[in-house]
Write a structure and sequence with these properties.
Chain A: Pfam families: Response_reg. Chain A: This is Response regulator. The complex is a heterodimer of chains A (212) and B (180). Chain A has 212 residues and is of the alpha/beta class. Chain A is 43% helix and 11% strand. Chain A has a five-stranded parallel β-sheet with strand order 2-1-3-4-5, with helices on both faces. In chain A, strand 4, helix 6 and strand 5 form a beta-alpha-beta unit. In chain A, helix 6 runs antiparallel to helix 9. The longest helix of chain A is centred in the last third of the chain and has 14 residues. The relative contact order of chain A is 0.14. Chain B has a domain of 108 residues: Four Helix Bundle (Hemerythrin (Met), subunit A). Chain B is 75% helix and 0% strand. Chain B has seven helices and no strands. In chain B, helix 5 runs antiparallel to helix 6. The two termini of chain B are 26 Å apart. The chains are: A alpha/beta (212), B mainly alpha (180). At the A-B interface, helix 1 and helix 10 of A face helix 2, helix 3, helix 4 and helix 5 of B.
């Protein structure tokens, strides 16, 4: 029997708003995810072991390589690097992790070309989910076409958290089930278009809540 | 003659008798349930009058023993952010000519935050403001912003009252249930 279903996955959450970070962190923890929350795309890249440009290794602690991230969830509207920019950087896997002039680091670097920092999975295969408070179809399509797995409208709900695990699990068994990709891409768009219906659904839910 | 009852006794069942013997503690229990009723009524009004929507319930669902003050913490963060944004918008509106893109950007952030805590009335006023912004209607923006500020202030007061009452009810609530 597969042990994968019981594993606790690690999500990297990216949002420049402290309030939204607190919210997404709580949503994720309540749904049994481990969370690292950062306030910018550049911080996110650091955690993932990617840098925007060539850097000396002195600023990057070895611990960063040991954090395995299973999914990235990011806000779209952020100053500097937007969520879309971050998505592209992850998918294209820009820049080499660290380059140092010392010999031992160079050896390690050469070794790292053959060994991924993320264990057996490649960084560009990490599922990325984008969040936004605005329902702009062109924006949503751009993100999905750019490689995002899902697009969540804010405020993100507990029920949205259920959509994360399948993407992580699918990524882990990618070779075995290639046909799933087609069905999931249509359901991602449905999430955004469904928003017209969901306020109705949400209004119905209100009557079930007791007010005490 | 003094009668001593341990907390293990089903106090609620002996209520009529106890009110005679425990006249010292009875008012306390009355007071506690009165506060609870007040809290429930306050909360119902917040929803009925449209100040809050179901997103607020979502926040409550996220509160538990590991994060017992989650809702209040998020609301506090909201008012910290929103006060800053309101001040920024105030300042930006003074400028001439109007930078509508910048105004819209601030209001987009404010609306997003309001929506995250379920601040329905505030969210609606923010939407109105953005519509005036898109049409580059300065007069409309100014009028609309007055409404945003008003809703902001009213909600702040109401939620402060709500959390204050919640704190009062909290510990007493546990005491009244100890006999059950």
């Amino acid at each position: 029997m597969a042990v994968v279903a019981e594993a606790q996955f690690h999500v990297l959450a990216v949002d420049d708003s402290l309030m939204d970070r607190k919210l997404i962190e709580r949503l994720l923890k309540t749904s049994s995810f481990q969370v690292t929350a950062v306030d910018s795309g550049s911080r996110a890249l650091e955690v993932l072991g990617l840098s925007e440009g060539l850097t000396s290794s002195s600023a990057v602690s070895p611990a960063h390589n040991e954090i395995e991230v299973n999914l990235v969830i990011t806000d779209y509207c952020m100053p500097g690097m937007t969520g879309y920019d971050l998505l592209k950087k992850i998918k294209v896997q820009l820049m080499l992790p660290h380059i140092s002039i010392s010999w031992t680091c160079f050896e390690r670097f050469m070794g790292s070309l053959f060994v991924s920092h993320q264990g057996s999975s490649s960084l560009k295969d990490i599922p990325v989910v984008i969040m936004s408070s605005e329902n702009v179809p062109s924006r949503i399509n751009r993100c999905l076409e750019g490689g995002a797995q899902e697009f969540f409208l804010k405020p993100v709900q507990l029920s949205d958290m259920k959509r994360l695990r399948p993407h992580i699990l699918k990524g882990k068994s990618k070779e075995q089930q290639p046909q799933e990709e087609e069905t999931s891409s249509t359901s991602n768009k449905r999430k955004a278009m469904d928003e017209e219906l969901s306020p109705e659904r949400r209004r119905l839910k209100l009557s079930n809540y007791s007010l005490i | 003659m003094a009668l001593h009852f341990s907390s293990a006794h089903p106090i609620s069942a002996l209520h009529p008798l106890l009110c005679f013997f425990l006249h010292d503690t009875y008012p306390e229990m009355e007071y506690a349930s009165g506060l609870q009723r007040q809290l429930a009524s306050m909360k119902k009004n917040l929803f009925d009058q449209g100040y809050l929507d179901e997103q607020f319930y979502q926040l409550e669902e996220l509160q538990d023993e590991s994060s017992p003050n989650f809702v209040e913490e998020v609301v506090t963060l909201f008012f910290r952010d929103s006060s800053r944004l309101v001040a920024n918008i105030d300042q930006a509106l003074q400028k001439y000519p109007q930078d509508f893109r910048r105004l819209d950007n601030f209001m987009h952030q404010l609306k997003g935050s309001a929506s995250s805590i379920g601040a329905a009335k505030m969210k609606n006023e923010c939407t109105s403001f953005r519509e005036f912004c898109n049409k580059e209607n300065r007069e409309g923006c100014l009028r609309s912003f007055q409404k945003v500020k008003k809703e902001h202030a009213v909600l702040k007061q109401k939620l402060e009252n709500y959390f204050q009452l919640l704190k009062q009810v909290g510990p007493v609530d546990k005491a009244t249930h100890s006999g059950n």
